[in-house]
Structures are given as C-alpha cells and as structure tokens.
Amino acid sequence: MLTQKCLYTGFVLSAFSAATIAQQQDTASNEEVEKVVVYAQKRAQDIAEVAVPVTVISGQTLQDLHIKDTTQISSMVPNLKITNNAGEGTPPAFNIRGIGMIDYNTSTVSPVSIYTDGVVSGSANNLSSNLFDVEHIEVLKGPQGTLFGRNTTAGAVIVRSNMPEAEFGGYIKVGVAEHDHTSAQGAVNIPGNQAINSRFAFNYENYDFSVNNLMPGAPDGGLKQVNLRWITTADFDSVNITAKLHKDDWSGSPKPIESNGIVNSTNGGICTPEELGSPHCVNLYGHSVASDDFWDVHADTADRSHDTDIWGGSLKIEWEMSEGMTLTSITGYRDMERFHSWDSDGPGNFIEGTMDTDNELFSQELSVSIESDKSYWITGLFYLNEEIGQENSIDIYRDLRPDPVFGPFAGEFFYHNTLENESIAVYSQVDYELSDSLTLTAGLRFTDESTKYTSIVDLDSIYGLVPGLWNADGEVSDSEFSGKLALVQKLSKDFSMYYSYSRGYKSGGYNGGYNTSEALVQNAEYRPEFLDALEVGGRWNFMDGDGKLNMSVFYYDYQDQQVFVQVDNSGAPFGALKNAGSSNIYGLDAELDIAINENWSVDLNVGYLPEAEIADFDDGNVSTQKARLPFASDWDISGNLYWQQTFGQGTVNARIGFNYQSEFFFDQDEDPYTEQEAYTLWNGRISYNLDSGLSFGIWGKNLFDQEYSELRFDSKDALAAISELKGERRQLGVDVTYTF
C-alpha cells in the first residue's frame, strides 16, 4: 500500500514538473493572466498564493445551473458528496474526501462548517442555506484548524453575498419548471451618499418533489421557501462597516420515504439487492409498492409537515488603525425554529416521528492583521455559544398495540433535550516570504469547547404515559491544539506548488437523538476526533492563461473518528454516534479549465479516492469491521462544455454538463442492500441574452431520468426493509431575467 501511495504521488509530481519545464520555455511577453481571487485565508489572495485546496463556484454558475441551496453544490466539486439524510429541511450530511457524518440528530456538529459572510453555521441544523444573489462560493478541503471559527476535520464552505454598489441597479429573475416549480429572485442596489449604500435581495421557491406517492390522500411532498436579505455598507476613511439582516420562512411537507421490503412474497425467501423495490418484495407487514416505476412510492405522509423560521444578522467592522494594521470585529446571531415530521414505514404506522428544534447561535470574533512587504500576520479571538432545544419524538410499532403479544413492546418516546455548546479559541497565523519564490505559512490554534446537556425521555404505551422514564445530564469538554505548516513555491509566473501539513479536530458532545433505552440515554457522550493531513498541490496556467489546471494529492490519518453505529443491547434497533476506530485515506483532486477559442470552453473535475476505509474496532460495546467509508466513491468526475455566439442584438450561451459517481455505500457496513450503484446525471442550459439586459433561458436537470437514491437506511431488523429516499427525476424549466 505504501509503495502504491509513493508511486501515485510521484506520478502527479512528475506531471507537475513536466508542466513547469514547458511553462518556463514560454516567452516573457505573455499577457498577464487573470487572477482567481479567493478568501480561503480570510483575505483576498490570488489562488496561486494559498496552500489550501479550494474549489471556486461563481454566483453566475449557481444561477445558470439552478443550484437552489448549499446541499446541491456537490455536482461541481470533486470528492464532495451531500445528502439530505431524512429529507430536505433536516440536517444534511456533508462528506469531503470520505470524511463526513450520517447522523440524523439535530444537535450534531458536522465535520464541515459553512461560513456565510464571515459568520459560522454552528451545528448541522444550519448547513442547508438557500443560495441567491451570491458573489461566489469557496469549498475548502482538509482540516480547517487555524483560521476558521469552528474546528472541522473535513473542510469548510465559504459563501460570499453580493455587496451593495454605489449605483442604482439590480435584477429580477422568474421561472417555471416541471413538478409545479415556480421561482423568483432578485436584488436591487439602493445608493445612499458616497459612503453608505444598501442592497436588498430576495428569493422565492415553491415546488413539489418528483416522486409519485400512490397513497390515497397523501402528498408527493414539497416546500415553499421565502428568503430575504438586507445588507448596508458604510465606507469611511479608516473604518468600513457591513451590517446584514436575513429572514427565511419555509413550509410544506416532507419527501415520502419508501419502505422497500426484502421478503420474497412468492417463495418466502429473501429478495436480492437487485430486486429491491419490486412488487413481490414485501416488508415484515406485507407491504410493497404495487408498481415497477422507480419513482412511485407508497407512504402515509398525509399528517406529516415541515416548517422552518429563521432570522438573524451580523455586523462586521474593519478599522485600519495604521498603515498595514487592521482590527476586525465580526458579530453574528441566528435564531432558528424548525418542525419536521417524518414517516419511514410505507403505509403503516410502525416507525415515524418528529424533529422539533429551537436553535439559537451567537458568535463573536476579534482579530488583528499586520501586513508588511514580506509578511502577513493575523491573530484573533473567537467565541461561540449555541443553545439547542429538542422536542423530538419517535413512535414505534403503533399498529401492533392491539396485539396481545407485541402490544407491550410498542411505544412512543418523547425527548426533552437541551444542549449548550460553547467554544472559545485563540489563533495566530503568519505568511512570511522566505524568498521571491518561497512563502512559509505557519498557524496555531488553541480551542476550549464544552457541551452541557440535559435529556429527559417520556414514554407513552398501552400502560399509559410515564413521564421522566429516563433522564441524564452532564458536560463534555475538551481543550486541544490544532494548526498548519505549509510552503508555497512559485516555480514560474504561471506555475506554483504547495506542500502542507495540517491538524484538525472536531469536538466531542452528546448525541441527543432517538435513544430508545436507558443505556443509550446515559451513555450518549462521544469524544473528539482528530485528523492529520499531508498534501501536495500545484496550480498551472497555460495557453497564455486560457488554460488552468489545479491538482492536489493528499494523505489523511483519521483517528478516534465519530461513527454512527449500532450499539449492542440497545433495545430497539437504532444507532448512536460513537468513537469507533480510525481510517487511512488518500487520493487526488484535479480541476481543468480550458478556453478553446472565443466560442468554446470546457472544464473537467476529477476526484479519486483509491483508499478510504475504516479499520476494525471492538471495545466490547461498539464494534466496526474494516470497510469502505460511506459516501466515498472511488471516482467522482464532472465536466461541462460551453458555447457562446453573438446573434442579432445579443448572445446565445449554451452548456451541457455531467456528474459521474462510481458506486458507494450509505453506511460503513458495506451492506449490498444499502449500496448505490454508479450513475451519471446530465444537465444543460441554453439562453439568449439581449444587450438590453433581458435574457431567456431553457434548462434541464437529470436529462436522461437517471434512477438513483439520495439515501438508503438499513431497517431490516425493525421492518425487514430498506428505507429509501429517492433522488430527483428529470426536470425541465424556463426562466426570464431582466438586469437594470
């Protein structure tokens, strides 16, 4: 294995070396290449100057591809997978380079954080955020253990909103599409005086999911989302102020979950994974979907609903105290109330529940940066306080209550949980030019985090309501160092490489999920996880800047990882989040962009993970076997072909794109029933953009109606079934945009 890794790394480095030699043979008369500016290190930099693997997605690309929210960006980023674990509106699972989490709990902290205009997202509750009027997105890969507010082991997503401009202007865009989808978004600049300007932006989405629910009186599910944002900037001689307010209101019903039985009704045997979803495959209670159409489901969701109400704001103050020295303060607040009810058992009443969450987050960051001819130094303090209230419930085997044998085992659990997460950190990082071609980056962070929790569980059964059946309270705390050491080497004006070591960690906590036994309630704490990462990357501009290649190879040592596992003797078959072993991960990311000529361009993204396995682990209570990590395809490849042509009083723009993912598992058990086979999704768009500011577009997603799952969950023990959340089928739409 070590030999394979060395050969693998050597191959990539040899490719970079050959590219460098070719580039150095170019004449010095080449025009200056347009720089790609990123904020991966909390300041505007040329991407060639940062020792961070980062993928940049422009706001225009998000609009063209109809990327609605942060859970849909994975099709453009190699080695990134995102899924809505229990349906849209619930905490999504982000996975970067094999590192992620499949926990469904609304109190979990994800190994990936989102930073919107400098403010951290907090727990996984806040990872799903609508994307509208965005300047660009940056996806940072690897441990973010120095500069960013919440330690994460997998990476971070930076979202930058469009800022106000000094002149009046804006745009409005409206559209309709299949599955009863209507949308509208827009923004307007409201200039004040020379120093103060504002921008108002809005987004409206109303849509159904694409599955067809055969249950009489039950909806196909869908959401209506209204999102508002106001930003005001004030630019004075030495002080810049950015104030932001936002409001989000979502309502509707969840996507139906299908209960795919594994019992063969024709012979009493077990259906194969290939037969899953066939009419003759029934669950423990005889249910199956009486249809061969993949998109048909049969789920009792008539009484299921979703409602999210979010509001918040932030204040950023930048004070240039002297030449090269800046003091920055970022204050953020976010309040979210969310109710989501779900059903995972088809038409019966065997396993269903609710997530009722009240989430309040406050963060404050204060930093000082000093820039000189040869160095840039930033140091700061960070504080976060997040309070999470959970009023969740799960109803198990309700339809069996009349049965004299099984009735005593049926019950509905009610959870009254409160968690307070607090994080305090001090950090410092310096970039220092050792020479004209070498820049050293060194950073260190000390973080102290704690989670105080109270968990009370009531039980309703045929014997009546038992309040306070189980309860637990306590505190989980940890104090850790993390950081980074890296070197950026400019081998020519168009080619640079970086070499980095970084260490990140994600704090421990309390798993306030659907614990169904006193043992789980009392032992739901988990410890921190750690990741050591080695990375070598390069960035090359060629063809006089018309071609760009970014590539990196990485090796991860992942320890004490937090894994969603089945715990022995836990009562009903539900999982818990536990530290369960370690993993070694290595692979590569590559991104290629080429402007072939003035009319044609192409991009290609490749992610490769030849090794991403969790090791054997057994501590007597929790065990895992050596297996491929969930959501970790060997290959993740996407690409786009673009064409533009002047025509009449405007320009025609067209693109066709694809995203291929090789097979992967939805859990770490390598269960063939929870394997997603390889699939490719195609999408496209063509638009006519008039010089007057009016444009018309036709677009499509999943053009060939590819069948795929968003999630498969092992319910064999409880239901003799696999619970499946289906992906989205083909969708065609049109839109009209007016820019003024």
Specify Rg, calculated over alpha carbons.
Answer: 26 Å
What low-confidence regions span 5 or more consecutive residues with pLDDT below 50? 1-31
Number of strands: 48
Total of domains? 1
Query: Residue share in helices?
Result: under 10%
Summarize model confidence as the mean pLDDT.
Answer: 90
What's the CATH first level? Mainly Beta
Class from secondary-structure proportions: mainly beta
Bin the strand percentage: over 45%
CATH homologous superfamily identity: TonB-dependent receptor, beta-barrel domain
Identify the CATH architecture.
Beta Barrel
CATH third-tier fold name: Maltoporin, Chain A
Shape label: globular
Question: Which features does this protein show?
Answer:
disordered N terminus, 22-stranded antiparallel barrel, five-stranded mixed β-sheet, 58% strand, mainly beta, 740 residues, Maltoporin, Chain A
Write a short abstract of this structure.
The protein is mostly beta strands and 740 residues long.
Q: Can you give a write-up of this model?
A:
- The chain contains four helices and 48 strands.
- The chain is mainly beta.
- It has one domain: Beta Barrel (Maltoporin, Chain A).
- The strands form eleven sheets. The chain has a 22-stranded antiparallel β-barrel. Strands 3-9-10-7-8 form a five-stranded mixed β-sheet. It has a three-stranded antiparallel β-sheet with strand order 4-5-6, with no helix packed on it.
- The chain is globular and about 80 Å long.
- The relative contact order is 0.13.
